[in-house]
Amino acid sequence: MDNTNSKKALINGEIALFLRGLIIGKVLTLMVIGALLWWLLKPNFFSRNSVNSSNQNINTPSSTGSTFQTVADVPNASFNYGGSTAWASIRQLVDSQIQSDRPELQLRYVNPVNGSPGSSSGIRMLLDGKLDFAQSSRPVTDEEQAMAKERGFTLEQRQVGMDGIAVVVNPSLNVPGLTVDQLQQIYLGKITNWNQVGGPNLAITPLSQRREDADTVIFPSNSTLKGQAFGSNVQYVYSTTEALRQLSKTPGSVYYASARSVLPQCSVKALPLGSTSGQLITPYRKPMVSSEQCLHQRNQLNTQAIKDRSYPMIANLFVIIKQNKGPEQQIGDAYAKLLLTDEGQRAIEQAGFVAVR
Q1: Is the Cβ–Cβ distance between 165 and 257 less than 8 Å?
Q2: pLDDT tens digit sequence for 15-51
Q3: 168-196: per-residue pLDDT in tens?
Q4: Which of 5, 14, 205, 325 would bridge 253 by S-S if both were Cys, CB 3.0 to 4.6 A apart?
Q5: What φ, ψ does residue 203 adopt, rounded to 5°?
Q6: Helix, strand, coil percent values for the chain (each to nearest 5)
Q7: What is the b/e burial string over 198-234, where b = at least 16 CB atoms within 10 angstroms of the residue's CB?
């Protein structure tokens, strides 16, 4: 009996040992197989990660172009600048962004003590040492360059954008448009009634800033009319704001200014212009927004006509730099470079102008 029980216990122990060994063997086998599979699949895993990483690098641009941050040699100081009133939206939208990104640079706009603000007064203040650089909607004149040379330096004009020169009238005036020659003859006092250019029998009242303060010019330096005096019927205004006020009150009046400045105004109407009467181009994008719609929608600059220069009166935007090898030259150069970055050119277009790059 005891022998029988002993044999049974021995058999049961051997069976248990066999089963335990079998289980352990299977576990070890599974672990080996798992390890082998992991090892075989690991290169593909890393390869997939590498491919995904490469794809992410391809899909994510490494650079968004030149920015305000990428411009070197921006001086750490405060500077005075001024000039063209047409640049108002650039000062509001672009210059504030520049100073936010480059806090070491501080810009302070300075109005003229005498006369109205504009391209001419800004260049004059630069010549007199009251500004460190100037913003202009017209080129430097020969006279201004001669004055600079007398004072021991030269003036560099660096173009950073484009605008149009718009001719605006009272909304009630019915006239198809003007050629550049007709506009010039109006300001010379040789065309004095709107019926001479296809309009009603109504006297023309030309409005203008004085030439020494003007923001834009209708007699460019390469014109045969350069230097000719305006007619005696021209009425002079201090600013574009004053001109727009008079236009709304005087049906026969006319004024020229930066297209970006006057096109959004509800109280005036911009006229198409052309080299000939058969090629009139609007300074605004068609269709024209009427004065009734103007409270909810504004006329925008015809940027395509400015870019391809089919519009006949273009105003180039210049940074005027004093070339004197001093801090004025350094800041003027840095400011122009900031505006000519990809970020600066996009900002100029957002401000309503046409980029040059």
Answers
A1: yes
A2: 444 445 445 445 444 554 454 444 444 444 333 333 3
A3: 999 999 999 999 999 999 999 999 999 99
A4: 205
A5: -65, 140
A6: 40, 20, 40
A7: ebeebebbbbbbeeebbbbbbbeeeeeeeeeebbeeb
